[in-house]
Write a structure and sequence with these properties.
Number of domains: 2
Number of strands: 11
CATH class of the largest domain: Alpha Beta
Radius of gyration: 26 Å
Number of helices: 6
Strand content: 25-35%
CATH topology of the largest domain: Fusion Protein Consisting Of Minor Coat Protein, Glycine Rich Linker, Tola, And A His Tag, Chain: A, Domain 2
Helix content: 25-40%
Structural class: alpha+beta
Shape: elongated
CATH architecture of the largest domain: 2-Layer Sandwich
Largest sheet: 5 strands, mixed
Order of helices and strands: HEEHHEEHEEHEEHEEE
Distance between the termini: 53 Å
Length: 250
């Protein structure tokens, strides 16, 4: 008798639990996703990571050390007080001179790396090859919407998202609007990177970005202000378009 009593309680629990779970899932699925993310340079690094760098892989996680049998030279170029400086080492480990150069480079200027090497292959005789990359140091302060992220989300919701008919985005559909915040915090070059396939929605998203108030621009610790690129995405954030944007989602 006691077992029957427990079974009835379990059945009642399941009966009440499943409709609630289904309702919660449906509301989550039906909620239109939207984000604004920073578009990063192809290779970028924070000032903190730069201070900890000891090798080329620390500067560029995609550096292809497996391509190299032997190093000829590793040349690093930076700008200091407007003048170009160069330091050369013999392998992938940064010399003290190279470290000093990258730590004191002018804020907002790129760091260039050029590697000359003998390739790792089965050939008996190899010609010297060369690979290079350019590194951007992220500003100390990112560009920010007035009032912060929550105010930005609210503006986008009220101006754009609430005016998009329910069911407009299905499956993996996504729309993306790229834009730049310039040194004065103004919105520049807003353009459609990926269409929603609905002309009215595309127009709404573009106008929403173009009519935003000015942002506080990105800046380095020395006060130098710089441009930054962003993208406004609406729809399924698992779309195959997302990897094309070079964003870093939190």
């Amino acid at each position: 008798m006691k077992n029957i009593h427990y079974k009835l309680i379990a059945l009642l629990f399941i009966a009440f639990a499943f409709p609630y779970a289904g309702s919660s899932q449906n509301s989550s699925v039906n909620e239109l996703q939207y984000e604004v993310n920073r578009i990063y340079p192809y290779i970028s690094i924070t000032k903190e990571k730069l201070k900890e760098a000891h090798t080329l892989i620390d500067l560029n996680k995609d550096y292809k050390s497996s391509w190299i049998r032997a190093y000829i030279s590793v040349e690093i170029l930076t700008s200091y007080k407007g003048k170009i400086r160069k330091a050369v080492s013999k392998n992938a480990t940064l010399s003290q001179e190279q470290k000093d150069m990258i730590h004191t480079a002018d804020a907002g200027t790129d760091i260039s790396v050029k590697v000359q090497y003998l390739p790792e292959n089965t050939l008996k005789y190899n010609d010297i090859k060369e690979m290079d990359f350019t590194l951007t140091v992220n500003p100390d302060n990112e560009a920010i919407y007035p009032g912060g992220q929550q105010e930005l989300k609210q503006y986008l919701k009220e101006t754009a998202i609430d005016n998009i008919p329910e069911g407009s985005f299905k499956g993996y559909e996504l729309a993306a609007v790229k834009f730049t915040i310039d040194e004065e915090g103004q919105i520049m070059d807003a353009h459609l990177f990926w269409s929603s396939k609905n002309e009215k929605i595309d127009k709404l998203l573009l106008e929403t970005i173009r009519n935003m108030p000015n942002w506080k621009p990105a800046a380095y610790a020395n006060g130098r202000k710089v441009k930054q690129e962003f993208v406004f995405t609406v729809g399924n954030m698992e779309s195959c378009v997302i990897p094309l944007l070079n964003i870093r989602q939190s």
